[in-house]
Design brief:
By secondary structure, the protein is of the alpha/beta class. The chain contains six helices and four strands; from the N terminus they run βαβαβααβαα. The protein has helices at 22-34, 59-76, 87-102, 104-116, 130-138, 140-146; strands at residues 5-10, 37-41, 82-84, 127-129. Helix 2 crosses helix 3 and helix 2 (59-76) crosses helix 4 (104-116).
Length: 162
Amino acid sequence: MSEKKQLSFYPGCSSQSGASSSNYLNSINTMCDELDINLNPIPDWNCCSASIGYAQGGQLPRIALSARNIALSEKHNPGQEIVATCAACWLATREASERISHSEKIKQGTDLALKEAGLVLKNDTKIRHMVEVLVEDIGFDAIKAKVKKPLEGIKIAGYVGC
């Protein structure tokens, strides 16, 4: 028996019970159990802030919210890659990490905001979408071997996130 893959899990707002993709979260959890993936939720995570940009909330608040999730992951799930299942959450978190890495001004503002919350951001954690993990780490053959009920003939609709 192989050891379970450990990932720091950012579920996102729509995955909460009763939210728009709560059934998606049930599917993800079942799939991960079958594929020996252990999702370790980021404690006290917050909204990724993807929608703040539409409300003209400003760059720093948007980036600081996602950076908070990264810092919490680094603190509570050290050494684990962050994985998101929502495309908007994945993109907002990855963008925040990249912007902080490429701008000293953004890094300083983010560090100050996180300091107020008692957090420190190392920003050395890889951020991935669940599909990347499935394709790159698990592989199509391993996934196919675990299929119990093929979905032949069923129409599928994708979920694009918040």
